[in-house]
Fold:
Amino acid sequence: MDPDVSVLLHCERWKGLLESQVQVELSERFNRQTDPTVERHIEELWTERVSREPWLFNGAKFRLHSFCFALPKHPPSTRSSHIPLLNCAGDQGGQTNSHTVLEDVLQQTKLLQDSSTCGCTDVSPDIHSRSGPVLTLRLGLTCYKDYLGTNWSSRVAELRRRGEAEFSDPVALLAQPLGVGAVLRTADGQVVLIRRSQKVAEAGGLLDIPGGHPEPKVVCERLGQAVCEENISVEMMQQKLEVVVSELFSSVCAEIRDEVNVPLSSLGEPVLLGVGLNHISAGRPSAEFYVSCSLTSDEVRQLYWKGGPEAHESTDVVFVSRAELLQLNSSSPLWSELCPSAKGAVILYQTVKPDGGTEKTTPQNGPT
Structure:
């Protein structure tokens, strides 16, 4: 559909996944592969970048290595409790392999019931009734410095070739920090987009969804460990991995609060749509969520213009009807205004449809 983005995984079979249906496996085995030459290159790039932009901060991030779905071997009516884990991570750098494997996995889920709807505030009983995790995300640790020095390096094509040749994984040497984003739907059926400031590091001037990153430091703080970013380790977080999952889901709501100035009390429970890949930044992954809001678009607009903690990151708020969002594609005039992460989120929303079936309402003339 668009060379800028592809879908690594989607949760169409379940109309999206709730926090209780996701788990993580956290290990240093899932960190980026290191190499002396690559590390020197990263340090050189970071030193040069900080000299020009001294405000840059090297924060710790979670690295998405791979994922697997847990699927029942037998129909739900049987007594069998055997649940095999199916690795369907594929190649994060390319659309074809990961999509093909994912479709194979989805074919094996035909015995699972399709949930009819899955909003955030009023989630269908069917999705709540499925006990146990459905999706496992395999995470390591990385940092912003490594992201700039690998995914955004002028040598990224060489790093991908080396990764494939030396580790049978084209992204083995890349940071691949996991981002989060939200398809935020208001009470009157409008989806919230924000126009990125020209001063931000990526996609300045383009329309985006609210988003950011789950923060390892926040996980450590919730576990009672006060630590500086550079000293954060996998071991510190392994005692309660559910806190990592909680940060993955709660961070997207925190980003909505900080970027759009919408209070957390007006937000529904996040529903994971899937993971998109941004090929402008060498296939960087982002977990995209659906989040409902009890406020109308006019109320959200008023709050946005009052300004939140991260108001400087955007210059305008734009509303698109659900009907238009469902019909949006690469030939739509609005599509060229979307940054890659927003494009990925739109594709996932159209695929999963967490809040119901096909929209029959005639689309509006354009965003407001």
